[in-house]
Design brief:
By secondary structure, this protein is α/β, with parallel strands linked by helices. The chain folds into three domains: 204 residues, 3-Layer(aba) Sandwich (Rossmann fold), CATH 3.40.50; 152 residues; 71 residues. Helices cover 62% and strands 7% of the residues. The longest helix has 59 residues. The protein is rod-shaped, with a radius of gyration of 46 Å. It starts with 5 loop residues before the first helix and ends with a helix.
Length: 522
């Protein structure tokens, strides 16, 4: 959901995340020992000498090794090894030496090769290596490519260093190489000097072979795997700590609500000012086409939420995202959620406007005006009827009394004229009042649109605040989950550390995690 950036996401591309659920099981596989080094340092020659036969290809051209060579006892099945071994471009060689039965020897390509696939092969095999024999020569012991890999991968393996072609080297080079290893984190590195030509003076090849055979035990494998799990837990905890910094604090994220309210107030004022003229045009059109608008489903053809309004709203969201970014808050979740709001804003305003137009045309004016007009309409009918009844009553009573009187009395022409005038006035007065006080459809629609627009603004603000609060809740949940995982990693790492037995030979072959990270930064 974009809570962390790409750089932080790439930190989890390794196996640290999967290590959280990993268990240090008792291994039942051979010890994986690999030779690594630059071109021409004699890795393949050392493996051939170890095997007593030419199983690894040697040469002087660049690059020398193009493939991975596996050398193991013929009674050891590859089904005992992990299923995810990168067996592509791999040569197989077998032996029958019972003393080396519990070791699989691996000759890896030259990592400083001009061919990119060689480095890819080395990096694919490194996670599966238990003991890595780092081979150097007097000419190549300061090579930068191999040294950078040593710094980045040093904490994941047990390391044995071989200063090959020692017959061409000197003690000052040995001391310089030993100093580099100490700076990288090896307190007392295990270094052997070997020579691949005769006579082999000061050659420690037999000591190297004896050490590796002595380490080919279940205890060594358990030691290495427990320590690797500890390192992975520490690595995952550090990555999560880094990501927590990218997430920002809970107090900073709570400021996002205030930021949006301030931003929306400014944007709302701009929108209301920009809508003043379009609303008048919509009101005028609605008043002129009232009958059509009430009977047709299409409504008014003029849209209040146009490209100008959409641009202003997008600018407001961008400014808000920039303000959130200044608080070191993750912006991607905000933009993702606001993307759905952008699609709804126009529909909210359009729906409210159409409803306001229909209601205004169907019921123009306010409640007081409508009550008054109903009363006048009643008077328009009732007053003439009352006047007619009164005139009829006067005519009847006058005729009745005149028939019983000795002197007949007639109402006369004046009464007739006045009676007609009274009836006409009783009808015309309400008629003119209705005509003069009838609410303006244009003003009614304009008033309704303004009211609907304010209601739409409230709905948009409420929807945005609800989204921000939801993201805030997710943010707090992310922090809680990450903190819990960090505590679990620390607990698992401490448990694994307490279970690792003291092993002097292996401790010399391991690099301290903190030292290798510091060395890598240098």
């Amino acid at each position: 959901m974009g809570w962390i950036n790409r750089v932080a996401f790439d930190l989890f591309s390794g196996g640290a995340c999967q290590a959280l659920n990993a268990k240090a099981e008792n291994p039942v596989r051979p010890l994986m020992v690999a030779f690594m080094g630059g071109t021409g340092v004699g890795k393949s020659a050392l493996l051939n000498r170890l095997a007593g036969q030419a199983i690894a290809r040697t040469g002087v051209e660049r690059p020398t090794s193009h493939e991975v060579t596996l050398f193991y006892h013929r009674h050891v099945g590859l089904n005992h090894l992990p299923d995810d071994l990168p067996m592509a471009a791999t040569r197989i060689a077998q032996h029958e030496d019972e003393a080396k039965k519990n070791i699989i020897w691996i000759d890896m390509p030259d990592i400083d090769s001009v061919e990119a696939k060689n480095k890819t092969l080395v990096l694919a095999w490194l996670p599966h290596i238990d003991i890595l024999i780092y081979v150097v020569s007097p000419e190549r012991y300061r090579d930068d490519k191999e040294w950078r890999l040593l710094i980045s991968e040093g904490g994941r393996h047990a390391w044995v260093f071989v200063f090959n072609q020692w017959d061409k080297g000197c003690f000052e080079q040995y001391q310089d190489f030993q100093l580099q290893l100490k700076q990288a984190g090896f307190i007392d590195p295990v270094i052997f000097t070997t020579a691949c030509v005769f006579p082999r003076e000061s050659d420690q090849f037999d000591d190297l072979q004896a050490l590796l055979i002595s380490l080919a035990t279940e205890h060594t494998l358990k030691f290495i795997e427990q320590r690797n799990l500890q390192l992975k837990m520490d690595e995952l905890a550090e990555k999560l700590q880094f990501c927590l910094k990218l997430l920002g604090s809970a107090s900073d994220f709570e400021q996002a609500i205030g930021l949006w309210q301030a931003q929306w107030q400014r944007t709302k004022q701009v929108l209301l000012q920009g809508f003043a003229w379009p609303i008048k045009q919509i009101a005028l059109y609605s008043a002129e086409h009232a009958a059509d608008l009430l009977t047709q489903a299409n409504g008014c053809p003029y849209l209040l939420w146009n490209d100008w309004a959409q641009t202003r709203f997008d600018d407001a969201l961008n400014e808000y995202a920039a303000s959130a970014d200044q608080l070191a808050l993750p912006v991607a979740p905000l933009k993702q959620r606001f993307a759905s709001l952008i699609q709804k804003v126009g529909k909210i305003i359009q729906a409210n406007n159409e409803m306001a137009i229909r209601q205004s045309l169907a019921n123009p004016g306010n409640h007081l005006q409508r009550f008054f007009l109903k009363f006048v309409r009643f008077c328009e009918i009732s007053l003439p009827l009352i006047c007619i009844c009164w005139v009829a009553y006067q005519v009847f009573t006058g005729y009745y009394y005149s028939s019983t009187s000795a002197n007949p009395h007639y109402l006369g022409s004046d009464f007739a004229i006045h009676s007609v005038l009274l009836i006409v006035i009783a009808w015309l007065l309400p008629f003119f009042i209705l005509k003069q006080f009838r609410p303006s459809l244009e003003k009614s629609v304009l008033r309704g649109l303004n009211k609907a627009l304010l209601q739409s603004m409230i709905e948009i603000e409420s929807a945005a605040l609800a989204m921000i609060k939801e993201i805030n809740d997710q943010h707090q949940e992310q922090i809680a989950q990450a903190s819990q995982i960090i505590r679990q990693c620390r607990a698992i790492g401490s448990a694994q550390t307490s279970q690792i037995p003291r092993e002097r030979a292996l401790e010399r072959m391991l690099i301290k995690g903190g030292d290798v990270m510091e060395a890598g930064r240098q």
